[in-house]
UniProtKB/TrEMBL annotation:
UniProt-recorded name of the protein: Phosphonate ABC transporter ATP-binding protein
Native organism taxonomy: Bacteria, Pseudomonadati, Pseudomonadota, Alphaproteobacteria, Hyphomicrobiales
Organism: Oricola thermophila
Family: Belongs to the ABC transporter superfamily.
Domain of life assignment: Bacteria
InterPro entries from the UniProt entry: AAA+_ATPase, ABC_transporter-like_ATP-bd, ABC_transporter-like_CS, ABC_transpr_PhnC, MetN_ABC_transporter-like, P-loop_NTPase
Entry-linked SUPFAM superfamilies: P-loop containing nucleoside triphosphate hydrolases
UniProt cross-references to Pfam families, sorted A to Z: ABC_tran
Gene Ontology MF term list: ABC-type phosphonate transporter activity; ATP binding; ATP hydrolysis activity
A GO term from the CC aspect: membrane
Domain spans labelled ABC transporter: 2-237
NCBIfam families documented for this protein: ABC_phnC
The entry's keywords: ATP-binding, Cell membrane, Membrane, Nucleotide-binding, Translocase, Transport
């Protein structure tokens, strides 16, 4: 489970971008984080994966406090966090299989991924996951030959290759057409259940958030102003 306690973040000497934020996410839940641009949604995800340093507060992932790690520990901890991006962040000239394996390698020597020979179990696991999301037949295609929806599926498989304990998705459908967006949201929803994963999704499309997630967290000026069921959102929105 993810437990965030009294999280504050300010960049430099600016005002607080996250202010005394508290959030708990347990098990196979898909949580949408909504809020106007500048509300602090991305900063929140970046604090969790420690791309930015929280100013104060605690972020615990299954008991490990992510705010108290040295470099080496942080690198290992990041492997426990699967990331899915708006722009997919694939390496275009590598194949789907190579991109997917870079999840296994922990992203760090990304450009080396192509030179690695992968252990058979990693190849098997990759095929299994690629079949699950419908891209196994593209394993040897270059990433830039795929459509947006297919590319995002590669991103999802790459994240799952890490055997993550949580998935963070930053506007995962913002580059996709409405139909493909729904497919990706449905996919994330069913994977959360299958893999018993908490999934946090930053999303600006409130309609999609309501339809495809069980819980909505609404942010404004760095604070949580709503946390509940989509059906209860009306009054607060
Ligand atoms: P959202 O994802 O909800 O649009 P962000 O987390 O991106 O919100 O931004 C929250 C606030 O933090 C905004 O005022 C933004 O300008 C500011 N901010 C974001 N990133 C940085 C940064 N690297 N340096 C300084 N200010 C930043
Ligand atoms: P090219 O074949 O286009 O001349 P190189 O293979 O010589 O490119 O690599 C140029 C630089 O790009 C190198 O510094 C390398 O680290 C980086 N690089 C190579 N392949 C990748 C990749 N797949 N992803 C990210 N960076 C890469």
């Amino acid at each position: 489970m993810l437990r965030i306690t009294n999280l504050d973040k300010r960049y430099g000497n600016e005002k607080l971008v996250l202010s005394n934020l508290n959030l708990e996410v347990e098990g196979e839940a898909v949580v949408s984080i909504i809020g106007a641009s500048g509300a602090g949604k991305s900063t929140l995800l970046r604090c969790i994966n420690r791309l930015v340093e929280p100013t104060s507060g605690k972020i615990e992932l299954n008991g490990l406090d992510l705010t108290k790690l040295d470099r080496g520990e942080l690198r290992r901890a990041r492997r426990r966090i699967g990331m899915i991006f708006q722009g997919f962040n694939l390496v275009d000239r590598l194949t789907v299989m190579e991109n997917v394996q870079s999840g296994r390698l922990g992203y760090i020597p990304l450009w080396r991924a192509a030179m690695r020979r992968y252990p058979q179990e990693d190849i098997d696991r990759a095929f299994h996951l690629m079949e699950r999301v419908g891209i196994a037949h593209y394993a040897n295609k270059r990433a830039d030959e795929l459509s947006g929806g297919e590319r995002q599926r590669v991103g999802v498989v790459r994240a799952l290759m890490q055997e993550p304990e949580i998935l963070l998705a930053d506007e995962p459908t913002a580059s996709l057409d409405p139909k493909t967006s729904r497919q990706i949201m449905e996919l994330l929803q069913s994977l959360a259940v299958e893999f018993k994963l908490p999934v946090l999704i930053n999303i600006h499309n409130v309609v999609e958030a309501r339809e495809f997630t069980q819980r909505i967290v609404g942010m404004r000026f760095g604070r949580i102003i709503f946390d509940g069921l989509p059906s209860d959102l009306n009054e607060a929105a």
